[in-house]
Amino acid sequence: MNIFTEIASLRHFLDEQKRKGKSVGFVPTMGALHQGHLSLIETARRANDLTVCSVFVNPTQFNNLNDLAVYPRTLATDSQMLEAVGCDVLFAPPDKEMYPALPQLKFDFGNLERVLEGEFRPGHFNGVGVVVSKLFHIVQPSRAYFGQKDLQQCLIIKRLVKDLSFDLELIICPTMREIDGLAMSSRNRNLTPEQRIQAPFIYEQLQKAKTMLQAGNSVAETQAGIYQAFEENIHFKLEYFSVADVEMLAPIVALPQVQSIALCIAAFLGKTRLIDNVVF
Ligand code: AMP
């Protein structure tokens, strides 16, 4: 595996590869890799001649300084894991390389960024938009891979690609879960053993909500059921539970309103903020 920390040398390498006619699959990450990330790498490898993974904990997408400070950083292990699954290129730039100066550019994704994560993490999607745009410009991939685990991020990137005419194919990959249903996440590393036992509660509630809706319960009844379950669980502090349309993530009031429904949750388990969703 080739490892780059500088934009110029990565570009030089990729230019040469592209001149040879190689297609490039790109997987942007913030590291602390797990099987969810690796599933994206494996999917990219199957469809491209060359697979590039970036590991960069992007400071501009954190609205909470403590969250940024405690975000796990495990570059040496990440590198070994990437090598083991046959990733061709690791791009791990220092902050100064990506941001010689603080970017002044601001993105506004409209209603899509006013709900859910956007509402609870002001500025988050602006930071995502800036860093992903920079990475797309640097790597210029044929295909880019993102996880449905971060559903709203997928929709934001879809919009970014459309609005800025990035010449690439966006591929959304399914959420990888632990055996007990917990969505794999770098943040799971920050859970205590006791919290780790509690953590699957989030996915259980998503499954429960899906079953309730499919059994004919109204959106209001379903929401009330989920809110009550979180009230009764002392380990969690619910930020939001939303029954939303899968295009704009706008709240759905009555059911036959849309074809596909997204159920989205964000909740704190101790100091760790976890998110998950199901689409059906
Ligand atoms: P992150 O390092 O959290 O920024 O994630 C990098 C990419 O991996 C994003 O596209 C995520 O949506 C994706 N990802 C994170 N967790 C999972 C998971 N459990 N299953 C599938 N993809 C994931």
Describe the structure.
The relative contact order is 0.13. The radius of gyration is 19 Å and the shape is globular. It is of the alpha/beta class and 280 residues long. The mean pLDDT is 97. It is 41% helix and 20% strand. The strands form two sheets. The chain has a six-stranded parallel β-sheet with strand order 1-4-3-2-5-6, with helices on both faces. Strands 7-8-9 form a three-stranded antiparallel β-sheet. Bound molecules: adenosine monophosphate (AMP).
User: Roughly what is the average pLDDT, rounded to an integer?
Assistant: 97
The tally of beta strands, per DSSP, is: 9
User: Tell me about the biggest sheet?
Assistant: 6 strands, parallel
Radius of gyration: 19 Å
SSE string, helix = H, strand = E? EHEHEHHEHHHEHEHHHEEE
Count of alpha and pi helical runs:
11
Q: Tell me the distance between the termini.
A: 38 Å
The residue fraction in helices comes out at: 40-55%
- Rough outline: globular
Structure summarized in a few sentences:
The protein has 11 helices and 9 strands. The protein has 280 residues and is α/β, with parallel strands linked by helices.
What labels describe this entry?
41% helix, 9 strands, single chain, 3-stranded antiparallel β-sheet, 280 residues
List the helices and strands and how they pair.
Blueprint: E1 2-4, H1 7-19, E2 24-29, H2 35-47, E3 50-55, H3 65-70, H4 75-84, E4 89-91, H5 95-98, H6 116-120, H7 124-139, E5 143-147, H8 151-163, E6 169-173, H9 193-198, H10 201-214, H11 219-232, E7 236-245, E8 261-269, E9 272-279
Parallel strand pairs: 1-4, 2-3, 2-5, 3-4, 5-6
Antiparallel strand pairs: 7-8, 8-9
The chain binds adenosine monophosphate.
The site of adenosine monophosphate (AMP) has 17 residues, from helix 2 and strand 5.
